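Quarterly update, task 2.4: iron/sulfur cluster-bound model.
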Amino acid sequence: METKSIKIGNLIIGSGFPVAIQTMWKSPLTEDIQPVLNELKELSEVGADIVRFAVPDIQDASILSNISKKSIIPIVADIHFDYKIALKCIEGGVHKIRINPGNIGSSWKVEEVVRAALDMSIPIRVGVNGGSLPASLRDRADLSQAMVEAAEIELNIFEKLNFKDVVFSLKSSDIDSTVMANQMFSKKYSYPLHLGVTEAGPLIPGIVKSSIALNSMIRAGIGDTIRVSLSDSMKNEVLAAREILKSSGLKSQGVNIISCPRCGRASFNTHDFLLSIESSLQKIKKNISIAVMGCIVNGPGEARHADLGITGSGDNVVIFKKGKVVSKGDSSKAVEMFIRELEEF
Ligand code: SF4
C-alpha cells in the first residue's frame, strides 16, 4: 500500500523506505541519562530504529528532552491524559509524539498539541488501542470498525488544521481485530501505519501472536513501522521484530541462521555454540546465512550451502566458507575458530 513519507528525527518512514523497528523503554526515568543513552546505542546496534518512552509527568518530559538531544536514535514521547506534557515534550525537542484518542480528552486539547507539533515540524502518531477506546465507541460489537472510527475522529482534527505528518496505529490484543482494523484503514487512507499486537504476552506466546498478525499485514504491503510488544526485554522485542521482517521477506540486513535442533546423533553441542556466538551475530547488518549443524548426516550439506557453516564430525568440527572447507579442529576450539572465520568473512 502506498503511504506518505514522514520524517522522525533522522529517520524517514513510508512507501519506499524500510519498515522501521520500534521498541518501548520499560523502566522509570531518572536525571542520570547516561545509562539510557548507552542502552539506546546498544538497541540501535541490534536493529532498533525508534524508541518510545512513556512520559507520565512534566519532570519526565524534561528528562526526555535531554535524552532526545543526545540520542543516536529517534525518540518518541508517549502521552496519556495530560496534553500539557505533550506540549512540554514538543518544546523540548522530542522527535515524535504519540497520543491516544481514548484518553487525551477534548478536541481542543488535541488541537493545541497539533499546532505545537506543526510549529516544531515533528510528526504525531495517533495510537488507537482496542482496550482504551473513546467512551462513545466502547460498547460497539465490531471492535475493528470501532478502532477505525476512533482513528477517524482524530483524523478530522488533523485535517481541519492541515496537519499531514500523522502516523496511525490500530492495535488490540486480539490478532483478528488488529489485522482487520489495519486492513480497513489502509484501504481508505495513505497515512503510514505503525503495526503491533498490543500486550502480546511473554516471550514465546508474544512472538507467535505478533508473527501471525504482522506477517499477514506485511505480506499484504501494510505497515511502515512495527513493534513486537513483549513482557520481556527491549532487546528481545527488537530481535523478534527483525526476525519477523526477515521471515516476511523484507529486512535484508542481518544473519539468517540455519541450525540443528539436536538429536541423538549430535556430536557437537549446537545450542551452547549458538549461545556463545549470539551477541556477535546480532550486531551483523549484512545479509548472510550461517549454518550450525550437529553431525555429519545433514551437517555438511547445510553448512556447504550457507555463506559460513560449521558442523560436528566426531570430536571435531569442520568449518565451511562458501561451500569449501576452510578449517577443522577440536570441538572445544569451535567458538574461537568460527569467530575468526566470521571476522574474516
Ligand atoms: S544435524 Fe544431525 S544432530 Fe542435528 S538434528 Fe540433524 S541429524 Fe540430528
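Highlight for this quarter: The mean pLDDT is 93.
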